[in-house]
């Protein structure tokens, strides 16, 4: 059962990678990588149960948080070309 | 009793995998960026929810259950925020969603 | 007061996630909680009224209703994606939310995005620009039921 889910999630990740490679726009790629991250979180959780080591959940949790921050960081980088930009209420 | 739970857990995990696949297919098939966001929305909500629920039924330790719940909540809260930020950034960069029918304004 | 409440929830979260109670681990936990608290205060995140209890009193009912809506629209969008012709009726809906507070509008906009098939693209000057994949989900939104429920959630 866990193997079924793991294989399905791997297939989903392959599809997301295909979309990330195909583009066509930058935003398609970021969206695909964001979706890939969600699937990765689920895959880590499922693999934790496959291995009988639910400690994997800590990694899944961390990955979910990093996935979110990473998406925003990439967006900010391409918006301002600088991660240290203070941003402004109107345009961000 | 545990048999019923096992079957329920099976159904949830297989169903979640199915919806994750649907999201992946949508990501590949849908014709423009703003539509593809909806496909990722499926993965973030129902696919994640069902798989986490299925895993939840498999564990006896409450600590593991709490962590599974936390993973679900984090994905549920960050998913829409990230996709909204993406759509907004695309809109402000000059992307316009291709439409099949005209814009309507609702006054509720 | 707010700092104390925040610190308490931080410590509770750390204890929940770690599960270790040796003195060494506990001191690490105390250090990380203190560091997080310092960062949060430095960022000025505690100055605003982000958390209001009034919202959470009626939220369980709303969460159940929203979960059911999410399941329904998931099935709808899945059927659209899997059908061979992919009958899309992409459209943009402009909504005027009736919530008074920023938090209420944020809950409304996030609920819209969380429901597959609808996506909040922009929120400016009290107008939400929502991208809808098909006409049924757009009509659901136009009926304004979610808007009413979020406004009721907001209370007085």
Characteristic key phrases:
heterotrimer, A: 92 residues, mainly alpha, 3 helices, C: 156 residues, 2 domains, 12% strand
Task: Note down, in words, how this protein is organized.
- The complex is a heterotrimer of chains A (about 90), B (about 110) and C (about 160).
- Chain A is mainly alpha-helical.
- Chain A has one domain (about 1-80).
- Chain A contains 3 helices and no strands.
- In chain A, helix 1 packs antiparallel against helix 2 and helix 2 runs antiparallel to helix 3 (about 55-80).
- Chain A is flat, with a radius of gyration of 16 Å.
- By secondary structure, chain B is mainly alpha-helical.
- Chain B has one domain.
- Helix content of chain B is about 75%, strand content about 0%.
- In chain B, helix 2 (about 35-55) packs antiparallel against helix 3 (about 60-90).
- The longest helix of chain B has about 30 residues, at about 60-90.
- Chain B is elongated, with a radius of gyration of 18 Å.
- Chain C is mainly alpha-helical.
- Chain C folds into 2 domains: about 1-45; about 55-155, no CATH class.
- Chain C contains 7 helices and 3 strands; from the N terminus they run H-H-H-H-E-H-E-E-H-H.
- Chain C has helices spanning about 1-20, 25-45, 55, 60-80, 100-115, 135-140, 145-155, and strands at about 90-95, 120-125, 125-130.
- Chain C has a 3-stranded antiparallel β-sheet with strand order 1-3-2.
- In chain C, helix 1 (about 1-20) packs across helix 2.
- Chains in contact: A-B, B-C.
- The interface between A and B is large, with 43 and 49 residues.
Write a short abstract of this structure.
The complex is a heterotrimer of chains A (92), B (108) and C (156). Chain B has 108 residues and is mostly helical. Helix content of chain B is 77%, strand content 2%.
């Amino acid at each position: 059962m866990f193997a079924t889910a793991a294989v399905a999630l791997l297939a989903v990740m392959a599809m997301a990678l295909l979309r990330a490679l195909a583009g066509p726009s930058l935003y398609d790629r970021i969206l695909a990588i964001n979706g890939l991250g969600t699937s990765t979180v689920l895959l880590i959780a499922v693999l934790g149960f496959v291995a009988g080591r639910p400690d994997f959940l800590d990694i899944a949790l961390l990955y979910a948080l990093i996935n979110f921050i990473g998406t925003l960081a990439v967006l900010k980088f391409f918006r301002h070309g600088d991660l240290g930009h203070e941003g402004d209420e109107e345009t961000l | 009793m545990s048999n019923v739970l096992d079957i329920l857990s099976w159904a949830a995990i297989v169903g979640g995998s199915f919806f994750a696949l649907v999201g992946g297919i949508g990501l590949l098939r849908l014709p423009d960026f703003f539509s593809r966001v909806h496909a990722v929305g499926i993965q973030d909500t129902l696919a994640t929810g069902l798989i986490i629920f299925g895993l939840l039924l498999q564990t006896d330790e409450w600590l593991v259950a709490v962590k599974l719940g936390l993973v679900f909540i984090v994905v549920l809260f960050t998913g829409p925020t990230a996709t909204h930020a993406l759509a907004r950034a695309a809109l402000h960069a000059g992307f316009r969603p291709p439409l099949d029918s005209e814009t309507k304004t609702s006054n509720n | 007061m707010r700092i104390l409440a925040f610190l308490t929830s931080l410590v509770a979260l750390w204890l929940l996630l770690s599960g270790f109670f040796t003195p060494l681990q506990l001191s690490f936990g105390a250090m990380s909680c203190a560091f997080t608290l310092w960062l949060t205060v430095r960022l000025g995140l505690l100055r605003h009224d982000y958390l209001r209890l009034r919202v959470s009193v009626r939220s369980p009912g709303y969460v159940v209703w929203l979960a059911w809506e999410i399941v329904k629209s998931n099935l709808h969008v899945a059927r659209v994606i899997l059908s061979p012709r992919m009958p899309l009726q992409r459209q943009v809906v402009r909504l005027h939310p009736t919530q008074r507070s920023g938090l209420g509008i944020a809950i409304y906009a996030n609920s819209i995005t969380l429901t597959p098939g609808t996506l909040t693209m922009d929120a400016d000057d009290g107008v939400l620009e929502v991208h809808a994949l098909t006409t049924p989900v757009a009509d659901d939104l136009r009926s304004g039921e979610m808007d009413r429920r979020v406004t009721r959630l907001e209370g007085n």
